[in-house]
Input
Amino acid sequence: MAQDKAKASPDDQAIGQRSRRIREQRGLSLEVAAGLAGLSKGYLSKLENGLKGFTRRGLIEDIAEALGCSVADLTGEPYPARDRRTAEALAVLPAMTVALYETPEHDRSGRVAALPLERLLSAVAQANALCEESRYALAGRELPALLGGLHAQAAIGSSEQRQGALRGLTEGYVVAFGVARHLGRPELAMQAATRARETAQQLDDPALAGFATLMTASGFSRLGARRAADNVLSGGFAEIQPTADPSGPDKRAAEALGVMHLVSAQLAARSGRADTAQAHLSEATDLAQRTGEQNTLQWHFGPANVASWSLAIAVETERGPGVAERIDADLPLVTSAGRRSRLHFDLARGYAQAEGQRDDLAIRHIDTADRIAPVRVRNDPIARDLVSMVDRRARRRVWELESLKRRLGVS
Output
C-alpha cells in the first residue's frame, strides 16, 4: 500500500491523467507539449503523474491550448451527481437549455402572459439571490417560465413595460449564467451571456450593458478563451468609462467598471502578466474605496470583494501562501454563501501551493467551502484535484480529508 501511495496511482478522474491521455492521442512528446504550454518537461511530467496539482485555472487553460483540446476535455466536466442537492440542481438544466436557445419569436406567451410584470421582475430578482446563495435548483426551477413571461411582456406591453421586461430578461440571463457555470456547463453559460448582451443592447443603460459585457468576458474566460475575453473587455472599458461616476448617485456603471478591472486582473494573472494584473487590481481597489459596498445584480462590488479577488489573483501568480495567510488573518466581510465559499476555496488553493507545509489549513478551508456551498464546490474540477493532491501528500489519515474525499467522489 505504501508503495502504491508513493507512486500516486493513476486516477481516470484526475486532470493530469486526462492530460497525458490526450497528449499521447495527439502524438505529442512530453517535451513538445511542455514547450507549447510554457512549462518544463519535468513539471508537466509531475502534473501528469499526480505529483503536482492544479491549483491554478490558468495552468489548465495553458495545457488545454497546448494540446489542442477544450478545458472541459481536461477537467471532465460536467460531473454526474453524487448527492441529492446536485441531482436536483442538474435537473433544471434541460428546460433551461431550451429556454436559452429559443428566440423571442417562439410563442411562449400562452403559458405565462397573465403574470403581471411586477411579479415577474420580483421572481427573477429572487432567483438571482438564490443563485448567489448557491441554491441552484431553486434558482433555475422556474426560470424558463419567467424568461417566457418576460419575452411576452416585452412583445405586448407598453414602451415602459417593454423596458422593464428587457431589464428583467437581462437579470434572468444572469441567473442562467450563474447556474450553468457552477454546474460545469460553460458552453451553456456562454449562451446565457450572449443572450444577456443582446438584450441589454436594446436598452439605453450603459451600466446594464457593462454587466452583460462582464458576463460575456467571464463566459469566454471559463471556456479558456482568454484572448476573446480580453477583446470583449477592451470594448467594454471604452463604452462604460465615460459614464462611470463612483461618487454620483447612480454608481452602477462604476461598479461594472470595477468588476471589469477585477476580471481583467484575473485574466492577466492567468496569462502570467503579473504587472498588468496588479495595475487592474489597483484600479479596482481605488474604485471600491469610492463606491463603497454595492450589489447591482448580485455582483457584490466593494472593498470586501476586491480583497477576496486579490487572493484569487495571487494564487494565479503563484503567490498563494503569503497572501492567503494575510487574508486569513482578517477575513473580508463577504456576505453571500457563494462569495464566502469562494473565499474559503481560494484560501485552500493558496495554502495548497505551500508544497505540503500548510495542507492542514488547505483541508480546513476547502471543508468550510464545501459546507457553505456544496453543489458549487463539488462541481469544481480544481476542488477535486486539490483534495487528491493533499491526500497523496498526507502522512497520516485525517477524518476531515477522508470525509472530503467521499463528498467529492475522489478515489
